[in-house]
Every structure is written in C-alpha cells, then in structure tokens.
Amino acid sequence: LACAFAGLWNCVTINPLNIAAGVWMMLNAFVLFLCEAPFCCQFIEFANAVATRADKLRPWQKAAFYCGMAVFPVMLSLTLTTLFGNAIAFATGVLYGLSALGKKGDAISYARIQQQKQMDEEKLTGTLEGQA
Q1: May I ask which residue range the UniProt record assigns to the signal sequence (predicted)?
Q2: Rounded CA gap, 98 and 96, in Å?
Q3: Which of 60, 77, 94 is the last residue of a domain?
C-alpha cells in the first residue's frame, strides 16, 4: 500500500520522470499484491496463476526481482517519496535474500569445525617440522 500511495502522490506533478517513477511504483504495488497476497485480488482472473508461478520461484530469484523492481523508480527520480515508497518493496526483497542464505548454524557444529581445523593445522605443522 505504501508503494501504491507514494506512486500516486508522485504522479501529481509536471515532471515526466516523477510521473514515470510513480506509474512504475503503482505497477510494483500491483505485482506485489498479485504475488504475495492474491486473496486481495480475487476479482482478477489470473491472480491465482501469477501467485502459483511466484511461489515456484526460488527465494534468491524473488529477492532479485523485488529489489530490482524497487530500485528502478529510485533511479528514475531520486526523491523522498520514491525512497520511502519503495523501501518496503526493497525490504521484502532483502528478506527473501536472507532466507535464500539459509539457517544459521548451531554453536556445537561450529565448535567441531573449528576443532577439526585446529587439529589439521597441528598435523600439518608437525609434518612440516619433521621434514625440516
């Protein structure tokens, strides 16, 4: 909603780049509604098809798509309206990007890896000292 309202507000000007950025922001809001909340667009016939296709995308693909959609209007017209309007769309992309990275490892497995590295280094230095 923030992207849509900011896009509408951005269109109330005579600057053509602001109008283009505003139209793009409203298009972003519509695409986000279709992909993330298809129940809000029940009156549109193809909403469920778009939502199922968006659900099949990997998280990093969604992250690139949402962040790319949010950056374009800011590049067209760098104003506070475009920055704040696209912040939520960009944050959605960032969250998908973070989910693509996976879960954080637990401390026990990290300690085992560190201990294994230390043991490997000790073996390596021991063989090097034996060769010298």
Answers
A1: none
A2: 5
A3: 77
